[in-house]
Amino acid sequence: MTRTTFIILACCVVLWVFVSQLNHYLAPTHVSIFAGGLLVTFSALRMNFREGWWSSFLIGLLIDSSTSVAFGFHGLLFALAHVGIFNLRGRFPREETTFGVVVSLFANLGLFLVITISLIHRTPSPLGVVPRLSVDLLASEIAVVLAAPWFFALQERALELGGVSHRREQRGLL
Amino acid sequence: MLPKRFDQAKPFITLGIIVLAWLIVPTGVKRMMRLSFFEFQAPLDVTAATVRDVQEFWSLRTRSRDELIEAGIDLAHLNAKYETSIQTRAALEGEVSRLEELLKLPSYTEFRSEPARVVRRDFNGWWQRMVIRKGSNYDIPEGAPVIFVGGVVGRVRVVHAYTAEVELISNPGLRLAATIEGDTRPLSFQGGNNPTLGPAEGTVEFVPLDVTATPSSPRRLVTSGLGGVFPPGLTIGQIVRLDPSTDGLFKSGEVKLDPRLDSVSEVTVLVPLQKE
Q1: What is the DSSP letter of A67?
Q2: Which candidate from A21, A66, A133 shows the least CB-CB separation from B41?
Q3: Which of A116, A118, B217, B263 could form a disulfide linkage to A28, CB 3.0–4.6 angstroms apart?
Q4: Can you give the pLDDT at residue B229?
Q5: Can you tell me the distance from the alpha carbon of A93 to that of A101, in angstroms, rounded to the nearest whole number?
Q6: Distance separating alpha carbons of residues B262 and B250, to the nearest angstrom
Q7: For the domain that residue A8 is a member of, what is the CATH number?
Q8: Distance from the Cα of residue A113 to its chain's centroid
Q9: Could you tell me if A123 and A129 are in contact, meaning their C-beta atoms sit under 8 angstroms apart?
């Protein structure tokens, strides 16, 4: 774990707090936002493996600490998503924001489905919960599209302020 | 140098090793880590809740003096009503104690009421929970019942230093023993699916065949007092539909929970009193 890991982790915590507050206000409407895909995308696309992996894993553990799932569930899931994206990133224009947004959408969709499949057994009628989850997924994907460019810029700027030039790092200059 | 194929698979192998390592980490260590992570982020939630309270305070400051006087008069009326209720309650409690002694019945658990502000609501399709701003600093125990003006909110799942997590009755994983008001036969209540833009729901099982309920004539579902967590008679919701179950021995149906549960901002934790 390096300074880069903690800078990215701090940005992820900011996003997570925003999403938590949004969900607090949305609670009376029974709509909930999930932005897990957005938390792992930047670090998986632009950071080196170890630093990005740690930030994904730690933000997952932070989410685990305040949810009703086994501790490590989100942590390992985010780590898996990170590994998957990292392995494919060489074939795509990973520095492009538009590509980042698309990856966030797919990562968010994948994580949402995996969590749903893992927890669906808890509901008394699994089919009955599908409309609710579909609305949540749609709202989450819209939120991810809206927030992704800002969040990528936030992480980029935070790294710059922290004295880490990941643009140069990506080109092998450091 | 490693073959190219192995090099590509290296991140997955690393992840596999970490997953295996995670599985063998002792539960105690994981629990400690969970608590540490929670306490690390708890101030963020509490700060956000405090900011909301300050916003509310300043928005109330914009109200006119006339409105405040009117609210004060309403409050005085309510206080007078509650004074009468307190006297009636004291008389009834005396009567219950007298009967318990006379009939040699075990007495009900007594509770201390601990009001608490809601820090965060987390109502998604997978779980329904909230965080309240009181924890072990107010001797809140795990499993304590939580109520509000509309009835049962849920029960305390985890207690932290300054906050506690409450599992809501609308949580699909929560089950509790219940009865229909005026009936003593126990039923099983479970949190259900919570549809978008609709009130929270639950399901009820093992309802005797002679009981009926429809949306036009719903039946009030209350806690049974069995299990020792919730005191009897607290409102859970309204049974609005009952259908025969597949085995034909009982009925099962749908329970509508109080719509105010979704926007509750103040709850009361019932802390069981230790008997001397």
Answers
A1: S
A2: A66
A3: B263
A4: 81
A5: 12
A6: 31
A7: 1.10.1760
A8: 14
A9: yes
Q: Looking at residues B251-263, what average pLDDT do you find?
A: 91
Q: How many domains does chain A have?
A: 1
Q: What is the DSSP string of A44-57?
A: HHHS-HHHHHHHHH
Q: Is residue A172 part of a domain?
A: no
Q: Which residues of A touch B15 (CB under 8 A)?
A: 79-80, 83
Domain holding B226: CATH number? 2.40.10.350
* A174: in domain: no
B75/B54 Cα distance (integer angstroms): 22
> With helix as H, strand as E and coil as C, how does chain B read?
CCCHHHHHHHHHHHHHHHHHHHHHCCHHHHHHHHHHHHHHHHHHHHHHHHHHHHHHHHHHHCCCHHHHHHHHHHHHHHHHHHHHHHHHHHHHHHHHHHHHHHHCCCCCCCEEEEEEEEEEEEECCCCEEEEECCCHHHCCCCCCEEEECCEEEEEEEEECCCCEEEEECCCCCCEEEEEECCCCCCEEEEECCCCCCCCCEEEEEEECCCCCCCCCCCEEEEECCCCCCCCCCCEEEEEEEEEECCCCCCEEEEEEECHHHHHCCEEEEEEECCCC
Say if CB A24 and CB B120 are below 8 A apart: yes
Q: Nearest C-alpha of chain B: how many angstroms from A165?
A: 24
Scanning A130-169 for CB atoms below 8 A from B yields 131-133, 135-136
Domain for residue B38, yes or no?
A: yes
pLDDT of B3 reads 58
What is the tens place of the pLDDT at every residue in B134-172?
999 999 999 999 999 889 999 999 999 899 999 999 988
pTM: 0.86
Residue B230 lies inside a defined structural domain of this protein: yes
Measured CA to CA, the distance from residue A48 to residue A45 in angstroms comes to 9
Q: How would you write the pLDDT of chain A (174 residues) with one tens digit per residue?
A: 788 899 999 999 999 999 999 999 999 999 999 999 999 999 999 888 888 889 999 999 999 988 888 898 999 999 999 999 988 887 888 888 899 999 999 999 999 999 999 998 888 788 888 999 999 999 999 999 999 999 999 999 999 888 877 655 554 444
The answer as to whether A173 is a domain residue is no
ipTM: 0.84
Strands B145-148 and B219-223, by their bridges, are unpaired
Across the interface, do A28 and B31 touch by the CB < 8 Å criterion?
no
Which domain does B21 fall in, by range?
16-61
